[in-house]
Structures are given as C-alpha cells and as structure tokens.
Fold:
Amino acid sequence: MTTVAIPEWNTLGLLPPIDPAAPASQERSPYRVALSDVVARFSTSSERRQILRGWLNFRAALHGMGIIEGFQWLDGSFMEQVEVLERRAPRDIDVVSFVRIPAAFNPTPEQLAALDHDHVKQTFLVDSYLVEMDQLERPNLIRKAAYWYSMWSHRRNQAWKGYLEVDLEPTFDQQALDWLDQQEIQEAQP
Structure:
C-alpha cells in the first residue's frame, strides 16, 4: 500500500481536505497513511494515547476473528486540534471499517462483541461503524462510501476537513503498541 504523509493541521485546527497547492491532486482526504504515522502523530497526550491503545485493541479484536482485509477511515475530534478548538481532550476516535469477512468466519459470542457499536465505544473508545464490502452490491457500496465521505468532510459548523485511511492488515499493530508503551515509559520518567 502506498501511503502519504499526514498533512499538518490548517489554521482552523483541522486536517485540510485537499492540498491547496494542488487542489485537483489524487492526494486528498481520505489520506492513505501508515499506522505508525497515525500513532506517532496523534499520541501527544495521555488521553490520546489511551484512545490510540483502545483503537489498536479494537483492531486486534477484529484480527482475532480473522477480519484482516480492508481499511479503516479515521475521523472525529481525535483527528482535529480539539484541545485548541474546544479546550478539551478528545473522548474517542471515529472509525468506519470497510472489511472483507473471511470465508471461514466463525467467531465466538465473546468475539462478536467487537462488532457491537456500544460495546466497542465503551470498551475501546472507538465510535465504530462497519461496512461489509462483499455483502453490498456495488451501487450500495458506492452509496455507503459517499455517505461517510459526506458525513466526515465537514465539522458541525460546516468547516471543510480531511480525515485518514489506514489499512486493516495487522503487520504493524504490535510495533505501534510497543511504540505507545515506550512513549508512556519516557513520559513517566522524571
């Protein structure tokens, strides 16, 4: 997967939806980025690290059921400079997972909890939505993608904003968790 660098927040404290220097470029929201870049960029406080850890644990729960193909769109106040905009820490991360359910899908009842929105939000601090790509006819899949794009391209005050896309495959998840652990150890040292 080819990824791009996560753009800096613009003057509104948001990820820009496009590159203003190349407004017709293919490099636009949702920006396809590396998992490690998301963790490194957004782990700037203990609250953010807790949310990132929850998101990585949510991904592990999906991986544990064999759901490893697909991608996730990341948004919400977590992707904004909400500490400046609203003078508060983010409370969760918004995630739409576009997934392929494996042929041998046979999760336990405990594993299925990772597909329950309320459980995921409470347990992992992830406001989670799931789109099963293989269960939708192409026109409906396009409608779903357009819906989420439209929903996440604006703040409630209608300011345009961008968001991120991360591959769902698990290769770099443990590395990201290790990196978070190191950040917390370093912060705990005097």
